[in-house]
Amino acid sequence: MTQNNAAPTAFSTRRLTDFSQVEQLYKSRLKKDFARNELRPLASLRRSWEKDAYDCYGLFAGEELLGYAFFVRLGKNYLFDYLGIAEDYRDRGLGSIFLRQLAAGLTEADCVIGEVEDPEKAKDEDARAARERRLRFYLRSGYLKTELRSVVFGVDYRILEIPTGTTHTADELRTIYTGLYRSILPAPLFRTQFRVR
Predict the structure, then answer these.
(1) What is the domain count for the chain?
(2) Who has the most CB within 10 Å: 17, 47, 157, 189?
(3) CA–CA dist 143, 103 (Å, integer)
């Protein structure tokens, strides 16, 4: 990784086409960027990839990978699974640039759903402040709050939607969101570890 104080100025978002790239990112970045209870097993990602139900994108400056975004996909519906920016480039606006490029590139999407940890369920004020910062980041980047909340593997989430040109009701979003999780979780885990309200 480039050890440079200045952020690059030209970026491109490209789809990752080889699972070995995803595996490398999982081992080198996702394990550091996400809490253990938020990280799906690599084998689960591989199964979704092999069913052509998992899309992964990178934010690049030239050939240097600065960020990643992973989506569960079911038909034309997408669920943000993971988003990360390389540690040396955080807090420079690259996350917002990446989200805008992703939204512009997902032209075939009917619905794009995101999750953010619910600030109201934080265990202390520091956690609440961090969750509120994340929520504001997504809202500034074009996501919309919805009425939906969920608990997935014990983590409380607020459900967000990226406008795609199609307006979805709360019931439609609940059906889409539930279908996306049903597609990736084995039935016993879906019944016990997923709840939407």
Answers:
(1) 1
(2) 157
(3) 10
Q: 160-188, pLDDT tens digit by residue?
A: 998 888 889 999 999 999 999 999 999 99
How are beta strands 111-117 and 77-85 bridged, if at all? parallel
Strand order in the sheet with 111-117: 12-15, 54-61, 64-74, 77-85, 111-117, 155-162, 144-152, 194-196
Contact 56, 68 (CB under 8 A): yes
113 neighbors 79 (Cβ within 8 angstroms): yes
Q: State the Cα–Cα distance between residues 71 and 57, nearest whole angstrom.
A: 9
Cα 141–chain centre separation: 13
Domain span at residue 37? 12-196
